[in-house]
Amino acid sequence: MTGKTAIILGATGLTGSILLEKLLQDERYEKIKVFSRQHVRQQHPKIEEFLINLFELEKVGNLFTGDEVYCCIGSTQKKTPDEEVYRMVDFGIPATAARLSKLNGIRTFEVISAMGANENSRFFYNRTKGEMEGAVMEHRIENTYILRPSLIGGEREESRPLEYAWKKIMNLGDHLLVGKLKKYRSIHPETIANAMIYLANSQYKSGRIESDEIKRIANRYKE
Q1: In this predicted structure, what is the pLDDT of residue 172?
Q2: Where does the NAD(P)-binding domain lie (predicted)?
Q3: CA dist., res. 115 & res. 215, Å (int)
């Protein structure tokens, strides 16, 4: 029996890079397809890279085949101030990936959204994330998991001073968030990666998964 093939979008990002490293070490996976505009740091025989413009993912739809898709694509309004471009990243890429997954018979699709995603929100960021979730769910892929983390901890390569300061505040205040407020505690990218791998290899119910539930799922993951 051959191992599985996973597809990662966003493998050079904070969560995606951790996810890639874990999948490379996981014996259940034979091949990791990475669709990206730049090379990943790792060199490994399992990795098959496709350097493309992700806005043109449809052009390589015939190569978008595997057992599961991990969509870790995302930007910020500061990094991408042009709302049209921002929407192309945070809505367009995941929506296209979901459509190609359905067309190519991929049965598991996971995407990182955000806490507060709401297609009816008056805030552009939350509204875009909510509309992306709706577009993904429309394809009715058998195992669809939309992860909604709170503020993601960890160190990014690019400088985000305001985000860094807010993370420090959240780290100090996390212990004050109890009961129904626990889901607002910050979350580490490795926790998200662990949860994603567990979900892809379990019979967990499809749907939207809030930040506190992501943490509970991650605790079930065994390396």
Answers
A1: 52
A2: 10-145
A3: 14
> Tens digit of pLDDT for each residue in 138-176?
999 999 999 999 999 855 454 455 545 544 554 555 555
In sign, the C-alpha dihedral spanning 66, 149, 198, 173 is positive
Please tell me the predicted confidence (pLDDT) of residue 189.
96
Dihedral sign for Cα atoms in the order 210, 200, 66, 11: positive
Which residues of the chain, if any, have pLDDT below 70? 1, 77, 154-183, 223
Q: What is the largest CA-CA distance in the chain?
A: 50
Q: What is the pLDDT of residue 179?
A: 61
For residues 173 and 184, what is the distance between their CA atoms, to the nearest angstrom? 10
List the beta strands (DSSP E) in the chain.
4-9, 29-36, 47-51, 68-71, 108-112, 143-148, 207-210
Helix H or strand E segment including 83: helix 83-87
Domain at 4-216: CATH code: 3.40.50.720
Nearest-CA neighbor of 19 among 219, 195, 153, 186? 195
Candidates 63, 35, 34; CA nearest to 46 is 34
**β-strand partners of 33:** 7, 48
Assess contact for 203 and 177: CB atoms under 8 A: no
Q: Which helix (H) or strand (E) holds 161?
A: helix 161-173
The three-state DSSP-derived secondary structure of 124-150 is: HHHHHHHHHHHHHHHCCCCEEEEEECC
Distance, first Cα to last Cα, the chain: 21
